[in-house]
Amino acid sequence: MAAVNRVFAAQLSGLPVFGPDGESIGRVRDLVAGLRLDTQPPRILGVVVELTTRRRVFVPMLRVTAIEPSAVTLATGSVNMRQFNQRPNEVLVLGQLLDAHATLAGSDTRVTVVDAGMEPTRTRDWVLAKLAIRERRIGLGRRRSAMQVLAWSEVAGLSLTDITGQQQGAGQLLMLFDTMRSVDVAATIRDLPLKRRHEVADAMDDERLADVLEELPDDDQKELLSYLAEERAADILEAMSPDDAADLLAELAPAEQSRLLELMEPEESAPVRRLLAYSSDTAGGLMTPEPVVLTPDTTIAEALAHIRNAELPPALASMVFVCRPPTATPTGRFVGVVHFQRLLREPPAELVASAVDTGLAALRPNATLPEVTRYFAAYNLTCGPVVDTEDHLIGAVTVDDVLDHLLPEDWRETGLHDTTGETGEQLEAERA
């Protein structure tokens, strides 16, 4: 183990993990500690590592040979590929201990844990020796007390029962989530205890929660949506992309689906209702009704400005769709598409009408998934138009939605099988 005296948990979040030969293993997502009945610092049992396949696995602390500001190194590239599952006597340092409420030992002063520092012992173990805490003050508005770093024994009320039973805040976790992609936040939330997951959902703003919800497996989406109050659930659906909202609503009971659609604003629910009319395995069910649609008299410079929008997914930014007014789907007559590479080659003052590809075939809304797949493969596309029988553009299918339906239903939850040669039982024994 590299000679470091103390490492704070928040510093480890998201650090890359490498094997002994420099091979990339994944990223640190949490620390697992075994809480004690006495006041002695708890031992760090290991690290929760998210592999490149999105699977989260447990790596015993004894397998960690170096902790540096920019990376964590393991003694072996072999890891137990079994999905991490928290045991009853364990606590997730980032997921459960941060933001926990406690008191200073021997007093009634209430504090909140904002970070935890682990230190090595002579036996090569790591323990949570220090806690960064902030005093909880009522009625001071935005004023915050100074942060202190205290020994574990100086803070009371952090037994396993205390931590899992209390209503925690989520401020510290949300700060960590700010640096993570939505898909990584979704993977983190899935591993949190149900109660903690709900606390995080309560603390997130609607836009962020909508982005995260889109990345969760179907069962987790339904569970989280059912936990939310109906009014907020409708707001979250409005913030989601219409195709993702339609996919989620399609999984609900008809009565619940109708109720949530009624609570949504009419202009937000209208495109979702249209998508629900199509089978999920057709172009109409796969498409998004919000591609970049421009009129023929739009300049190349304006078209480039549209696809520069940072919130536009890369697949949708790969082409713009040229239509007669109106430009909201269903549009006026569909003219054709302009690929973004063509936009880069044309003078900015030229009109998109001069660069339109009118020869690209369009998908019909009833095209089946195999037909859509062959279409993307044949034309080497990442996005394609969906046009009705009257030549109105009604949406666009993107390659990520096609892959989502081609992969196994549990693709968000599973990763590659263990091919390292070392058995999961051997590695798991180090956790005992």
UniProtKB/TrEMBL annotation:
- For this UniProt record, give its keywords in alphabetical order, as a comma-separated list: CBS domain
Q: List, for all copies, the residue spans of the domain called CBS.
A: 287-354, 356-414
Under the heading InterPro entries, the entry gives: CBS_dom, CBS_dom_sf, Mg_transptr_MgtE_intracell_dom, MgtE_N_sf, MgtE_transporter, PRC-brl_dom, PRC_barrel-like_sf, SH3_actinomycetes
Spans annotated as Disordered? 413-432
Give the protein name, as stated in the record: CBS domain-containing protein
